[in-house]
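Subject: AcrR family transcriptional regulator structure
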Amino acid sequence: MSQSAEHQVAGPFPGEGAPVDARTRLVLAAVEAFAAKGFHGTTTRDIAAAAGMSPAAVYVHHRSKEELLYLISRHGHESTLRLVRAAAASKEDPAERLVAVVRAFVVHHAHGHTSARIVNYELSALSPEHQRDIADLRRRIHTEIHELVQAGVDAGVFHTSNPRMTTLALLSLQIDLARWYREEGEWSPEDIAEHYCELALRMVGAR
């Protein structure tokens, strides 16, 4: 398992540390394998090999390949929700709050772009129950951003005729970053965050 795998699962994964336990090693290995082959193209043997373990070890620690995808997805969404809430709470002015949230979101997704792509584009492979859990987390993230935008409108700081649509546009812009961002690319996460903050303020009509 490469050193980058731990970095790609943004935020500390439950059980993650030194040494990383077998259960977490398999989750981190699944990030590598799903990123390389996609969920449907990955076998439990691939995951075990990436973790340096036997194929049987997967079923000792996890019920299925789908459970691994769910754990990656849940962790990614929970860590995003935490950082959005923390960033929003760090400021009082609506414009400053929006900038703080966008900056944190963008840097978080850029540093964890591999796992973010898995989280956002493999959702259909989850079981119905797990899809509902992830959908609930996504709604909570959406609500945090929407309430921030609406508060700015109510305060007369933001000027947008449709806060709900603006919220969707803001989230789409930030989430899609994981699709095209590359570590060897021209822009650093901080460069992108700075520009996205400018775009976000324009989108909400900040004055």
